[in-house]
Design brief:
By secondary structure, the chain is mainly alpha-helical. Helices cover 78% and strands 4% of the residues. The chain has one domain. It contains 14 helices and four strands. The protein is globular. Keywords: Membrane, Transmembrane, Transmembrane helix.
Length: 414
């Protein structure tokens, strides 16, 4: 019996150790990939010093900077059809070209989608090359590195794990984004701005998702540490330290949210393109006289990535938000229990804890840690995903309805 318990304990320790190693290696690999992309493509103006474990603001070498700028300019000018298309549509609207404007709904929807794509692509380009944004980014990342290093040195390392469900969904999201890029290439070999926007937004999205992995792990570590606290003097000091770290996490999350809100609108704005793809797929399934194999080929070859990737992006962030909310509730319960247990004691430590507890309650009520989109009033969660899907479906049905009233049916939506 004892041997069986010892073997079970060793297996559990081995599993926890493996999860810890997997977490640290995953975070390290993702951060190095994102960092190397930034350095190679001259996104931002910073450099990492491994000795101090900090980012420092710096300028790129002139030769490297001019070379990358030349490549970027060449890639932008290669997409001259995109600018020509927008110009032609704009002139048609100004001078009331009957052949183009007569299509009505399809004309305005098509123009709106292309303006939307170009607008968010421009915002991403400005964000990646803004000196002011770079300073905020470097300052925030240094705070994240400092908090993470402090938590590793202060708490049990075996608590640094993450959910395999989130890792699985993130792998699916990346895979379908690659498929989405392939669908765009196969469908429209010109209009490169569509492909550029997918690539650049995916880069920023994964940087934000990496922060989500770390944030969830921080909550798990704090929850595990606070569960073992009681009202003894040494544990009061530990609890005060937990409060201090948590408030620093809240501060950093506010700064990250400000950076994320500047670009997160592109996640919801893709709903118009998603609706157009769903409309075309519905039209192909319902009204096209094709075999089942041909319809499946059309969907897999041209539509599956466009229809699934945006939904998975929202679902993944919603899953992270729900996980953070779940851990925060348990953390609050543990803090409330400790507060009740030590409420009858009066000493210097309990007075500090009372003050920290009041601050914690105010923070949870007015500014809880959540993922937001567009503004801080709209959280990205599973409920938002359902709303996102419902709006996309309603828009798709509207597109289909208007398209069926036209003589040529559905030719294209974007």
């Amino acid at each position: 019996m004892t041997a069986r318990l010892n073997r079970k304990h060793r297996e559990q320790q081995s599993r926890v150790y493996s999860e810890e190693i997997l977490f640290h290696r995953t975070v390290y690999v993702l951060s190095r990939i994102l960092y190397q992309i930034c350095r190679s493509c001259t996104f931002g103006y910073f450099n990492y010093n491994p000795e101090t474990n900090k980012l420092y603001i710096c300028r790129h070498e002139n030769l490297k900077k001019y070379f990358t700028y030349a490549v970027k300019a060449m890639l932008l000018f290669m997409d001259y059809l995109n600018y020509l298309y927008v110009e032609v549509k704009f002139e048609a609207y100004i001078f009331h070209d009957c052949d183009l404007v007569s299509s009505g709904y399809s004309f305005y929807l098509e123009v709106l989608n292309y303006i939307n794509v170009n607008w968010h692509f421009t915002k991403i380009i400005v964000l990646l090359h803004s000196w002011k944004t770079n300073e905020s980014f470097v300052s925030t990342i240094n705070k994240i590195l400092e908090i993470h290093q402090n938590m590793i040195s202060s708490f049990n390392k075996t608590c640094f794990t993450f959910d395999y469900n989130i890792l699985l969904i993130s792998s699916l999201e990346f895979s379908f984004t690659v498929v989405q890029l392939w669908n765009q290439i196969m469908r429209k070999k010109h209009f490169l701005v569509l492909k550029y926007r997918i690539i650049l937004f995916e880069f920023i999205y994964w940087a934000y998702f990496l922060y989500q992995l770390i944030l969830i792990t921080w909550h798990q570590v704090l929850l595990s540490s606070i569960s073992s606290c009681n009202c003894r003097k040494r544990n009061c000091k530990r609890l005060i330290k937990i409060y201090k770290i948590y408030f620093r996490i809240c501060e950093v999350h506010g700064e990250i949210t400000q950076l994320w809100l500047g670009i997160s609108g592109g996640l919801f704005a893709c709903i118009s393109l998603l609706s157009a793809d769903i409309s075309e797929e519905l039209y192909d399934v319902i009204y096209q006289e094709k075999s089942t194999a041909e319809k499946w080929k059309f969907f897999l070859y041209l539509k599956v990535g466009n229809c699934v990737a945006p939904l998975l992006k929202v679902f993944l962030l919603g899953l992270c938000t729900n996980r953070i909310e779940y851990l925060t509730k348990f953390l609050s319960q543990q803090i409330y229990i400790i507060e009740l247990l030590e409420s009858g004691q009066q000493n210097a430590y309990t007075k500090v804890l009372d003050c920290q507890f009041d601050c914690f309650c105010l923070q949870q009520h007015f500014c809880p840690i959540r993922n937001h989109i567009w503004h801080k009033g709209q959280s990205i969660n599973i409920e938002f995903l359902l709303l996102f899907m419902w709006i996309a479906f309603l828009n798709a049905m509207s597109n289909l309805q208007y398209a069926l009233t036209e003589e040529n049916g559905i030719n294209h939506f974007y």
